[in-house]
Amino acid sequence: MDNVDSKIVTKAKQHLLDEESVAYKNLKPGSGKYSYLPRHLTQVERWARRLLKEHPEALEEVVLTAVWLHDIGLLIGPEEVDHAINSEAETKRFLSSILTSEDLVARISHCVRTHRCRDIQPETIEAKILAVSDSASHMTDTVYIEMANRGDREAAIAKLERDLRDIFIFPELRKEIMSLYQGWKSLLIAYPNR
Ligand SMILES: [Fe+2]
Ligand SMILES: [Fe+2]
Predict the structure, then answer these.
(1) Measured in angstroms, how far is the CA atom of residue 120 from the centroid of ligand 2?
(2) 5 falls in which pLDDT band (50, 70, 90)?
(3) Residue in 64, 73, 70 with CA at minimum distance from that of residue 26
(4) What is the Cβ-side half-sphere exposure of residue 29, based on CA atoms within 13 angstroms?
């Protein structure tokens, strides 16, 4: 695992954002995902890089590759299936075509599959970093207010609560995140519902 080829991070990023990739072609200009997903992934990567500094035992290549693939299931796979499941399937298929290490494919796939902390929980430090980065990125983006603006205020509050729960995987973030959480909660409660 020490000799992981860091080029896999670049390949994973290209697999999603290269204009010739299947995933990118499914990113329809003008759609919500078109404006949101590239920005979201960039912000998740920023949070992940920060948390990697605080958890040097984690394998950077595993986390960063998983960052770029964790939401690819929003673009590939049946819409009625949880995108974490679609993302895991595509991650295994794609990485198996460029990597020989089954262990590495399994480690990255676990991060992708568990990033929503729903039916399967993140068990490795790399998977915990991805899950926390994903949720923390929502707290520093405009996702809640966009949901409220669409008339989904209650769903935005529920998402905020889930994100807070998942970020607490790392209790050391509690103080910093609580002030963001309280700010968003106050705003969402005051937000004029339709
Ligand atoms: Fe996701
Ligand atoms: Fe995400």
Answers:
(1) 16
(2) low
(3) 73
(4) 1
